[in-house]
């Protein structure tokens, strides 16, 4: 039996309990789509999805929740929190992770039988992410090479968003370490969609293609957008495409 399945660390060193911040936009009535749980990457909070995507998803019939990563939590703790919140929702959830949060979702899929999953601009390959960051922003990326925190600038994260709005979002971001971890196979035969931008200066197109290939598909790309798909100008296009894909996939099951 593999270590992934028996999870020795969860027995010998349980993840400490914490009060989790979860923001939600709910849908009235009984005719609802499955709930969505959005998981942001390190340095972000639930606010990053609450800005646009939560209300937009709820407006299309998907109850939407976003989880803020626990301060100082490692990858195991973040995965634990995502699984616990997903399990507490009233119906089997769809998991959606962005950036480093996509790795959290990918790991959670090995423990939680999600209806489906979406990995948005997934920072699932640490070396590739730091390599792209070094080319675009050497000063902010060098500390990450030696295990420090990665600092991303406006040019890396946004493409077309007015400078004032971009700087306001940047002021909310905290420098964060890139998580490490492999991509396990999901529990069950669930659909997984990878979305991103070929113009992303944090996650390369090749990295998007490798991650999508791991799940047997190809990435859905949105040219002209930056890494912050949920905050950049044109944020509605990716979430609408995600919801269209989910509606089609869930109807076929």
Write the layout of secondary structure elements.
Elements lengths: L2 H4 L1 H5 L9 E4 L10 E4 L7 H4 L2 H7 L4 E4 L7 H14 L5 E5 L1 H9 L7 E5 L5 H11 L1 H8 L8 H4 L5 H8 L21 E5 L8 H10 L5 E2 L14 H16 L2
Parallel strand pairs: 2-3, 2-4, 4-5, 5-6, 6-7
Antiparallel strand pairs: 1-3
Structure description:
By secondary structure, this protein is α/β, with parallel strands linked by helices. The protein has a single domain, classed as Alpha/Beta hydrolase fold, catalytic domain (Rossmann fold, 3-Layer(aba) Sandwich), CATH 3.40.50. 40% of the residues lie in helices and 11% in strands. The protein contains twelve helices and seven strands. The chain has a seven-stranded mixed sheet with strand order 1-3-2-4-5-6-7, with helices on both faces. The longest helix has 16 residues. 43% of the residues are buried. The N terminus is likely disordered.
Outline:
With 253 residues, this protein is of the alpha/beta class.
- Whole-Å distance between the termini? 30 Å
Helix content: 25-40%
How many structural domains in the coordinates?
A: 1
Q: Please tally the helical runs, counting DSSP H or I stretches of 4 or more residues.
A: 12
Question: What average pLDDT do the residues reach?
Answer: 86
Number of strands: 7
Shape: globular
Strand content: 5-15%
- The CATH level-2 architecture is identified as 3-Layer(aba) Sandwich
Instruction: State the fourth-level CATH superfamily.
Output: Alpha/Beta hydrolase fold, catalytic domain
Main sheet: strand order: 1-3-2-4-5-6-7
**Low-confidence runs (pLDDT<50, min 5 residues)?**
1-6, 139-148
CATH topology: Rossmann fold
């Amino acid at each position: 039996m593999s270590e992934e399945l028996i999870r020795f660390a969860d027995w010998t060193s349980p993840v400490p309990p914490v009060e989790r911040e979860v923001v939600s936009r709910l849908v009235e009535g009984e005719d609802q789509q499955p709930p969505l749980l959005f998981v942001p990457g390190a340095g972000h909070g639930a606010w990053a999805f609450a800005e646009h995507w939560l209300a937009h998803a709820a407006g299309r019939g998907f109850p939407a929740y976003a989880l803020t990563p626990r301060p100082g939590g490692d990858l195991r703790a973040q995965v634990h929190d995502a699984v616990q919140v997903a399990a507490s929702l009233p119906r089997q959830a769809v998991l959606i992770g962005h950036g480093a949060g996509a790795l959290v979702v990918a790991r959670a899929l090995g423990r939680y039988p999600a209806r489906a999953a979406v990995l948005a601009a997934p920072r699932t390959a640490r070396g590739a992410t730091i390599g792209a960051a070094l080319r675009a922003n050497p000063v902010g990326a060098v500390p990450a090479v030696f295990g420090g925190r990665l600092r991303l600038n406006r040019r890396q994260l946004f493409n077309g968003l007015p400078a004032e709005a971009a700087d306001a979002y940047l002021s909310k971001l905290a420098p964060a370490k890139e998580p490490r971890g492999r991509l396990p196979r999901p529990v069950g035969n669930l659909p997984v969609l990878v979305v991103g931008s070929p113009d992303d200066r944090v996650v390369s197109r090749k990295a998007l293609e490798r991650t999508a290939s791991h799940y047997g598909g190809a990435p859905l790309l949105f040219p002209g957008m930056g890494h912050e798909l949920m905050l950049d100008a044109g944020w509605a296009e990716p979430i609408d495409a995600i919801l269209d894909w989910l509606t089609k996939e869930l109807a076929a099951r």
